[in-house]
Structure prediction request, 234 residues.
Amino acid sequence: MLAPMPSELRPLVKRLGLQPSSSPAGRRVHEGLSGSASVVAAMTGMGTAGAAEAARRMLDAGDVDHVIVVGIAGGIDDRLAIGDVIRPGVVIDGASGAEYRPHPLGEHTDPPDQGALHTSDEFIVDPDRVAALRERGVIAMDMETAAVAAVCEELGCPWSVVRAISDRSSDGMADEAVFGLAHPDGSPNLPAVARFVARHPGRIPQLVRLGRDASRATNAAASAAAEACRQLTP
Prediction:
């Protein structure tokens, strides 16, 4: 399993009872068992480059039967609520336009009209661009899944994605300034947070809400991913 940020990895580790490992499969690697299946969870950091690197490292480290990308996503379909879990029918690489179709998890088959997940290193908030993505059937956006999918398909490994909605474009709370409050590995950039709060004290309630919503989404994604892992158990 691959999770971009520490906040996305922690609840997954807790639900599966994983333990720290010295495996070379990625950063902050944890291992354990789900039934009779071995599970490895690693952090990728934010963005496509880190995600591709972590996926390749994990697949090169040993036999892997299935990769699951776990984490949060920004919703652009207003029918989605905070904490809703999505398993998109297609993942679109925003840079190349390539499309990747996730593999079913166990006996679970996603409805064909669930929509698309768009992956890009850009933090897209422009209303016209968001509207254009929505017209293409995109329901949510992230920054890692397509990169993992590309590596998995190159190396012949089945893959899936479980994401939960942490924010919505229509709410107008997540912007470039907020995005800059995290380091590339997803950990908080505390000096940037301090400067932001000093300059924009009126946005403190907004940050609190974003944090609360992100926590709700990470827990929802982790629960769904843990259940998916059980479906993959022989």
